[in-house]
Every structure is written in C-alpha cells, then in structure tokens.
Predict the structure of 5-phosphohydroxy-L-lysine phospho-lyase.
Amino acid sequence: MQITISKAEVQFFIWEKANQVWQERWDREEKVDTYIKVKVNMRAQKLLTPTNFFDYRQSCRLFYSDEPVKIIKARGQYLFDENDKRYLDCISNVHHVGHCHPSITKAAAEQMDLLNTNARFLHDNIVMYADRLAATLPEKLCVFYFVNSGSEANDLALRLAQQYTQHQDVIVLDHAYHGHLMSLIDISPYKFRKLAGQKEWVHVAPLPDTYRGIYREDHPNPGQAYADTVKDLIEEVHRKGRKISAFFAESLPSVGGQIILPQGYSTKVAEYVRSAGGVFVADEVQTGFGRVGSHFWAFQLQGEGFCPDIVTMGKPMGNGHPLACVATTVEIAGAFTANGVEYFNTFGGNPVSCAIGLAVLDVIEKEDLRGNATRVGAHLKDLLTKLQTQHQIIGDVRGVGLFVGLELVSDRDQKTPATETAARVVKRLKEEDQICVSTDGPWENVVKFKPPMCFSMEDAELAVRCIDRILTVTFKLEKEDI
Amino acid sequence: MQITISKAEVQFFIWEKANQVWQERWDREEKVDTYIKVKVNMRAQKLLTPTNFFDYRQSCRLFYSDEPVKIIKARGQYLFDENDKRYLDCISNVHHVGHCHPSITKAAAEQMDLLNTNARFLHDNIVMYADRLAATLPEKLCVFYFVNSGSEANDLALRLAQQYTQHQDVIVLDHAYHGHLMSLIDISPYKFRKLAGQKEWVHVAPLPDTYRGIYREDHPNPGQAYADTVKDLIEEVHRKGRKISAFFAESLPSVGGQIILPQGYSTKVAEYVRSAGGVFVADEVQTGFGRVGSHFWAFQLQGEGFCPDIVTMGKPMGNGHPLACVATTVEIAGAFTANGVEYFNTFGGNPVSCAIGLAVLDVIEKEDLRGNATRVGAHLKDLLTKLQTQHQIIGDVRGVGLFVGLELVSDRDQKTPATETAARVVKRLKEEDQICVSTDGPWENVVKFKPPMCFSMEDAELAVRCIDRILTVTFKLEKEDI
C-alpha cells in the first residue's frame, strides 16, 4: 500500500530522524527536492503509529499542519510559495515594517560587513539605539538591557523585579503567556495549567475581558472593578504572609484573545501593586513599536498618567532578527547591579542587532506606519463591525490599530465559543483566498489580525469580503445540516 | 574643576541616563561624536558619587574598563579602533570563522532579502541545517531544537532532562557558568554563590582540575577518582530521598579556568548518572564547532564510546548572529512532547539563522579551520610550554586546539594564584602590543586563548613573544621592588 505523506510529516521526519528505518527508506527514494512526497506511508507500514509519530513532530506545531505551505519568499505583507502563489499575511507581527524590507537588509548587511562584537566594547550603535528608544518612553524608563528574545526580556524583568523588591510573588492575568523559558512557564497560566501546575508564589487575576469576563460592557466602571480583583488578590497574598514583587501583564493580552484593557485599569493596578511594595511590568513583546497606531506603546492607551516600572519588548523590534529589550528605571537597575554581579548577554546589544533596531525605527517614522496602522486598523474594525450586523456568529469585534480580534460565538446570549467555525474560517481563507489569519483566546474562537504594519486598505477590504463569503456559505450549510 | 571622564563612563551614562541632571549637562555640551569627552566630571560635581555611578554602569562590565577601546571594524582575527589601530583578537570565540567573514555576510543578506519567517512554516534551510549538524554528532543525537542563545539552549536542556526523567535534582561542576537566565543562575555556582545561594535541588561536584584540584597529575587515575566524587554525590542525594535528573557540565570548563577533563571521566560519570535515572548534558556553548581541532565537539575528546544524552550549542554557531541549539535523542524529545504542550521559539530556526548556520559550517570545512586549530593550537601550546621553563610564574600550560590556558602562580609549590600579574599581562598586552586576551578561573589567574579559528602561526608567535617580554619586565621590576 502506498500513500502519500504530507510535507509536514516529511519535514519533521527528517528533522528529527525519528526512526532510522525510515531514514533508510528516505535515502533510497528519489529526491527532487527536500520536500518530495515520499511514496510510502509510515502508518501503513506500522513502523511508527500515528500517535507516537505525532508526538515527535508536535513540539513545534506547523501552521496549517494538515496541508502546510512552503513559503520561499516574502515582501511587505505578502508571502509567496514555491509555485509563486501569493498569500496575504494578516498575522506576522514580527515582520513589523514588512517582510524583507530592503532598508533593514541593507542596514544589517552593512554592519555585518563592518563589525559585530558585543556590549563589552564601546560602540555608537548601542548608545544611539538606547537614546532613540528612550525618546519613545516616559522619562523615568531610561535604563536599557538588550537581549535576544521576548522570553529573555521577560526572564530578566522577573529577576529585576524580585531583586529590587526583595519579594518573590507575582500576579499574572488568566490565560497569559509570557514566554518559553522555565521561569516564564511558571508565570504563564496558558502553559502551567497543562504542565507543572501553579507555583505557590504565582497568583492569577481574572482577565479584564469586558466581552465575556466577570465584568462586562454594561458595568459602570469595569477598569476599577477589574483592578479591585487585583487588590483583593494582594490582600489574599498578604494574609498568607507572602509579598508581591510584580504584577506582570501584556498591555493588550494576546494569547488571552486580543483583549483591550478597560480604561483606568492599569493606573489603579499600579497603585495597588506599588502600595504592596511591588512593581508593574508591562509586557509589550506583541504590542509595542506603534502597532496600536495612536501611541508607540500599548500601555500608553491607559493615559498619560500611567507609567510601568519595567517594559519588555521583543518580536517586532528587529523585524525578524533576534532582538529584544528590557527598559526600566534607575532605581530598579541600581538595585540589580548593587549586588556586584554583572549581567552579560553574549549577543545582546551587538552592533548588528542595534543597526537593525535603528533601521526599524527609521522605517516606522519614514513610512508613517503608525499613521497607517491607525487608518487601516480603524477601517478594518469598521468593516468587521458592519459584518457583525449581518452574521449572528460574530459576537464581538475589538481592537486598536492593527491589533484586531473577531470573536465568533454560536449563541450571542450564551456567548458559546464557535471554535470549529473559527478553525474553518482560518482554513478556508488560506485554501480559497490565500489569506493567512489565525485564532487566539482560551477557546481558540477569536480570529486575530496583527499583520505587518504596511497592511493596506485594500488588504483589509479583501480579508473582510472573504470572511463575509465564508461565513455566508458556512451559515447556509449549517442551516442545511439542520 | 574640570576632569575628563572616560569613554566608558560617557557611554554608560547616556545609555542608562543615570541622572537627569547629567543628561541636561550632556545636552548643553558641544558634541563632536557620541563619545566626545565631556568637560565636566560628575565626581568633582558630587552629583553622583563614584560608587553609585559605578553601580549603574557595571551591570555589563566593559573590557579594559579603565581605558576601553572603541572598535569600529574587524576582519578575521583583527579588530580596528577609530584611529585604525589594529588589535590581535585572542578571545572572540563567538566570531568563530573570523570577524565579518564575507561568506557569512553574503548568506545572511541573501536570505534576509528573500524570506525570514519562523519554524511554523516549512523551509528547506532548517531541514538541511539539522541534517548537517546531525552528521557531526553520534547517531542517537538526532532531534534538534533551534533557539537564540546558549542560555535559551541550556534552559531548554534542563526542561528536557526534568521532563524526561521526572526527577528534579541537578549535579553541576564547581565554578560552572551555564547562562544568565533565572533557571541557569540556579545551576551556576559561579553566579549563585554571589546571589540567591544554592537551591536544595542543586549539587556541586568538584571541578576535575588536575592542576590544582583534589586529584592531580600525580594521581594514577584522576578520571576515575573525579567520577567517583559524582558517584558519592549521587548517593548523598539518594540518602536525602531526592532524585537526579541531570549531570550538567561544559565539555571543557571555561569560566572554571580552561580545564581539560581527565580521560575516562565523562564515560564513568554518564554511567553513574544513568544508573540513577538521570541524563548527561554536555554544554558545548563555548567549545563546540571544531575549536578543539581533532574533533568537532569537545565531548568527543573523551573517546568514541562516550555520548551525552543532550548537547547544547551556541556562541560560535552563528559567528555572532544569535543562534543556538539543543540536540537530543528521540526518547527524550518524545517524553517532552508527550504531554501535548508545544515548544515554539519565535526566532529559533528561522530561514536567516539557518542560512547563517549553514554558511558557518561551510567555512569551517572549506578553510580547514579544524586543521588550523590543531596545528596553530599545538604550536601555541608548545611555545607557551617552552616559556614555562623560563618563567617561574607560569604554573601550568594546558589546552587542546584553540582552547588554551596559561595559569600564573606566584609560587609553584603552593600554586598561589598570581591574579594581579595576570591582570597586568592582560592590560599591558593591550596597551603595548594591541593584543586582546582575558582571564578566567576562580582566581582570574588563567590567561585564556580562544581566538577566531583563523588564528595563525605568526599570531601565536607574536602573542607568546609579547607575553615573554612582559613577564621578563614584570619579574625584573618585582625583583627591584624587593
């Protein structure tokens, strides 16, 4: 029996060489390229059961794992597969100023050709870059630590908070994800609920989701009400004889389902946390660098009066290059270094990373990408809101700038998550329209948009038109099923 | 009073903007370039005391912090400052195939211009790269996780070990350093002794240093004797009712003082650790990719029969680009993914990182850099060994390939660390000869060589000649002091 196995299986099969017998079969097969379809099926051969094979390949889940795409080039908001088929990319927030932006490539190549040492040597780039970042932040956030990933940034933020406060406990939001490192799994309910469980020093506050959370749009002051849940949690922690080092939250919870924090929330939380001797950490890894349009940082949506004690940044910072950062105050940095133990990061803040970071900031400004995010994001949200009047399944449309969520529910009153429909929308948008979106939220029923910042009005219109068509057909089919 | 402050102070002053008053002064000063010497001295003004200012800037210690160099370009094993003064680089192991190697820059720029997505999309580069790495390793190490730094790799290795064994405890070598993340400070005696202290699940085995450790050259079988210390430690751990997840060690302890593990050590330790249900993790972040010359990995120096369960790699892997990896077995990877929680790393294994990794492997082969490391490393060690006959202060010369240490002692019998002389050698080599070396070891008395792999015979001869001159003068001066 000969069955064709998918490209995904072939890739992970080779990558992990899960079974030597299979490697030998592979070697004997004619290969036209790395992904030629192997003409034998491991399941049919019973050498590997589907279950244990799946175990091996799922440590990193592919997009569209049933029929993955092999993208070989990209430009702006477009991806191209090996047959030159074009896909509209609505999800790559990492490729912030557009895939393969020539200014970024040029800056990287020029600096790579010149010098790429480390932060133990003096270099202009790190100084200029820190200065440029400082100009986007409130004055008191003026100390910068350059690292290689949002995870490294959040790990360092946790160290800084604990060292400064000399307290241990952390409050996080429900469903939060702050990174893949051991310390961060501990503070990520999205992960620890499936793994080692909740540590005694970690406390989970309700997600301030005004659509389906404990306080909703109809509440007179959801910001205050949700902040009070943090206050209550702090009191509970104190009753246990424990002390808060930090409140740790994304400025717009992403994995939690593209949530917009209610007004007043962060200011109040910061007040409560600081009264308890803790600090406020704003995780801007997904949301920073102008994605929200009106402001450079999403935490700034909470008003001029609000300033976190620590801000972490990552994904969009290097447009795909591993570059991340922690910004904090002189007081916190002082407490961190006062013990005399240095922090050194081999690649962090090297001249190439900083050259790329500077080039990203230049492109954001020169191409007015914040302005674009404001205009296109508003248009996208308008179109989706109009769509909501035609499709009962659209429970909520929310977002700011190019950070937008479309929450699907099978019942508007019960807000029953329409998880399967959301998955179908993602799959059909890819197959029928070559549009890449994905889902988030605890029930994976929130279709999310966080495209490269050069996303255009036409792109927004096309995506909404296709969603309209897919929902119309789906609705029609579901009716027929009944 | 007007005193010139050093470039280092200016850089860290701006970078961290330690004091707003000083920022304002800076703004008022005429600037000719980023490092123009500010004509006012903060110490004289008493706005910041030397102590608290030093606190702020020392979170990353500069090389030559008294008079740091501003390097603006580099090529091969040479660095050039802003006055085009050339320095010979004997320490940049990260820039493995030479600074700014044109093949690496070309590979990076070409791939950056084409595509830089992530491991959720199929791409040839990740498959080809994993295949190439697999070819350098024993067959059973065939699963690869790509990450951004040696620290991320070691954190993941710890997770893998704990998940696979379902045990918690870790044995590490004394003075070891495995990275800057919270989880790694816990397993790095070099760091935790100065910080939070030793956790109950971490156990420290003696450093198998046959020069100044508990068993020395004169011992009939130091490999077995040191391995037995690990066996004893395991028994102690078991008596406490605890269980070993991993023995974690650099294949050649670097921060510990350029230590060469005695023959037989790793094989025996692996046997004991596996009997206790644990795994052997070889940290090759400093030592991998052919640095030892005769082998691609330093753990291979322990003989064909020895194979770790997990290997971590980093620094030299991307020649300065943030690229690192964990290699392990199908069994360990299977246990890791069996819980159904995926591991995703935003930048890890992206097409650009993999293109760079592939280019590094190509250059190592094409330029026979392993052969060069063998030849030049042997010559360097020979020359240093000859020097030892002329200078009583040279207590030990050890190394393999281009990983060489020169241990200075003020008394050969007592092996009293000559820490100050070592610092003087580093400083004078830089000032008088423009040669960059640095020190390692618990007493910072081991002058270390781990240069780019293109280091030449002439470079080795120059470095040794200059050390000879400096030691001669120092010795003469010290005699005069007496």
